[in-house]
Each structure stands twice: as C-alpha cells, then as structure tokens.
Amino acid sequence: MWDKYACYEFFHPFGMVLFFILQISYGSFEASMNDHIKFPSFYHMAPNEALQYQGIIQLLLHFGWKWVGLITPANEAGERFLNTIEPMFFKNGICSAFTERVEHHVRFKDNILHMVDDTKILSPTFIRSKANAVVVYGESASIIWLSTALTIMKLTEFILSQSKKNLPEGKVWITTAQIDFIVYVLQKLIDVNIQMFHGAISFAIHSKEIHDFRYFLQNVNPSWEEVNGFITGFWEQAFDCSFADSAKSTYKAKHCTGEEMLESLPASFFEMRMTSHSYSIYNAVSALAHALHRHMGASNHRRMEAAGRRSPQNIEPWKLHSFLQKISFNNSVGDEIALNERGELAAGFDITNLITFPNRSYIRVKVGRLDPQAPAGKELTINDGQIKWHRDLTQVRK
C-alpha cells in the first residue's frame, strides 16, 4: 500500500534529514512532524489532532458518559494521548474506568489459551467494567487487538471466574480518526463477528463524494501497472488469484483474468466510495496542482507557437513552498482547502456510526460533524436520532 508521506530524503553529514522537498501527509497524525519551524516543508492534509480531543470530550459530555474506558497502544503515541486526554477528563468531571495499554503483535495460534497468555489482554478491570463508553486510540492494530480480545473472551466461556454473561457487551466503542475498520482481514484471520462493533462511533477526517469517482473505480484495470506499480499486487491479494507473468506473486490456483471488477469485492475489503484517506489524497494532489499552476502563472514562460500552450518547465520543488503556504481554494465539491500557519488542513472531522448486518456486511453513516470554525464549546453537532446503538446496550445516557 501507499506510504503515508510523499517525501524525499537527503543524506547529510550529520544524518538523514528532510530538507526543502515537499512532504505531504494524507492520513494519520505524526506528532514528531508537527513542528512547522523544524519541518517547514511538511504539510498535513489532516486537521490538528487537538481538535479531535476536544471532540471526544464534547461527545462524552453530550451523552453524559462520565465513566469511560481507554484503550491505547503501548507506545509513545499512546502515552502522549493519555497525557493529553486524562487531564481533560479531570477538568470535565470524567473518570477513567480502566486504561488498557496494548501490544500490537498478536500472534495467531492453534491453542486459544496460548493466545490468551500471549496477548495479555484479559485484565479484570477490562472484563468487569460497567462503563458504557470505551475510547479506542491508535491505528488499525488497536482494532485487531480489541477484536482478538473480545473473540477470545467469548470463546473461553469463563475467564478469571467471571461467567459469560458478565463479559463486556453492549459497549459504545469510540474510535479516533487514525483507525480504519479492517473488517475483512479480521474476519479472515480470526473469524471476528463484526456485530460486536455495531453502533461504534468514529471520528473521521471530513470527506465528500467526488463526481465520477465510482465510475473511475469501475474502470480500474491491471493494465495500468506501468503508471501505477502497486495494482498487480493489490489485484492478486483482493481477488485471491495470480497473474501468470507476475514474478513477485505467490502461486495461487486461481488465475487472474484482469477482467475482475472491484465493485464485486466485499465492502469490508474495498469500499466503492470516497473514504477519508482517498479524499485527503485527492485534496493533496489538488493543492499541489494549484500551487504549480500559480507558480507557472507568476513565472515568465514561453508559449508554444502552434497551439498557444505553455512550454514544459523544470520546477524545483522548493519553489512551490510559498504558494502552498498560502493555498486556499474550493475543490470540485465546494469544500475550502486551506492550510493554517502550521501547515495543517484547516478543516474538521465527520462523526460516523457503524451499522452492521446479519450477513456480516456493514455501512458507515455520517451522524455529525466537528467544526473548528464553530464557537468554543459548540464545535460538535450530532444527530442523536440517526445513531443505531449496540443491540445489547440497555441505556445510552447516564
């Protein structure tokens, strides 16, 4: 898959540094790159993470959830999250019911008890907690860990002398914008029942549907390999097949014809819509195109005599900085794309609700918005009536 950062690296006598070349992040937040003085060439096609923390607090207060569980990765990012969110909890009268710091190297074994011991996931506080809401921070690995934990707990009949009826069901899982539900992988590896996440509320980088994007996806073909080098590998993985002339692929009995259709894939594996990551990439490319266009408009250049077209130019990447720093335009669906003084997208987050179905499919429905332009304390708007809660949740508000 793509790297998160479209960046180039220079070797310096004192080490490897990022210098002058444009670097654009389209997805997860990377706190070490937030210093725009140290990294003036780094641009974020995502809002500041601090806005998301405010949104979590406002969401909890909106529903009156004052007894909340926390699940974070056992790494620097997880500790930074806890060091930020816990004082905000205290300030707003919210208490941590439990805090689970999880390792992200779950190894799948034949013996379920070995998996229990290996994952270190079954702490008594997690099992016994009566907290309605649990905030899950991290990337996709956090969902893998949580899925494994819940699956093991349901398979093991009793854990730490707790009967099955006391296992943590009916929770509202609140996930951050860094997390993607990789449901297809979960179901394939550990036979996860997606129903356990029914009703989850997620923060997602704001997105809109782009005209003709679905038509574009319907026409994607492995023959594009020469201009997009990852398609063959993705195609073989997605359709569980192999191309006869693919030196990199592992042999599979099924032969790829190249006529397979992306829209035939389960939505849990490939969504035929504009996801947050796709929208961020779209806006990143659009921003770069606008910066390039403005640079060319401000430069002295020759026009080709025959058709009046501009002659091609070799533009040094660093020359686009002054244009990107001041970028502000409306994209094709009317969203304003502008970067603030820290090189971050001046936008908000969507609030989505995960709705699952008995056939193990799901949809994500937008139920609210987190708007940084709104008055302080009013950034969150949410439509309570649209939300579908977990079927075992007996009480939403506290």
**Percent of residues in helices:** 25-40%
- Broad CATH class of the largest domain: Alpha Beta
Order of helices and strands: EEEEEHEHEHHEHEHEHHHHEEEEE
User: Approximately what portion of the residues adopt beta-strand conformation?
Assistant: 15-25%
Shape: globular
Which secondary structure elements does this structure contain, and how are they paired or packed?
Blueprint: E1 5-6, E2 10-12, E3 15-17, E4 23-25, E5 42-44, H1 49-63, E6 67-73, H2 76-91, E7 95-102, H3 112-119, H4 124-128, E8 133-136, H5 140-155, E9 172-175, H6 183-190, E10 201-205, H7 213-218, H8 231-239, H9 276-298, H10 321-325, E11 328-330, E12 336-338, E13 349-356, E14 362-370, E15 380-382
Parallel strand pairs: 4-5, 6-7, 6-8, 8-9, 9-10
Antiparallel strand pairs: 1-4, 2-3, 10-13, 11-12, 13-14, 14-15
Helix pairs in contact: 3-5
Q: How would you describe the overall organization of this protein?
A:
The protein is α/β, with parallel strands linked by helices. The protein has 3 domains: 1-44 and 279-299 and 310-346, no CATH class; 49-206 and 349-386, Rossmann fold (3-Layer(aba) Sandwich), CATH 3.40.50; 215-264, no CATH class. The chain has 10 helices and 15 strands. An 8-stranded mixed β-sheet has the order 7-6-8-9-10-13-14-15, with helices on both faces. The chain has a 3-stranded mixed β-sheet with strand order 1-4-5, with no helix packed on it. Strand 9, helix 6 (183-190) and strand 10 form a beta-alpha-beta unit. Helix 3 (112-119) packs across helix 5. The longest helix has 23 residues, at 276-298. Residues 1-18, 157-165 and 301-307 have low confidence and may be disordered.
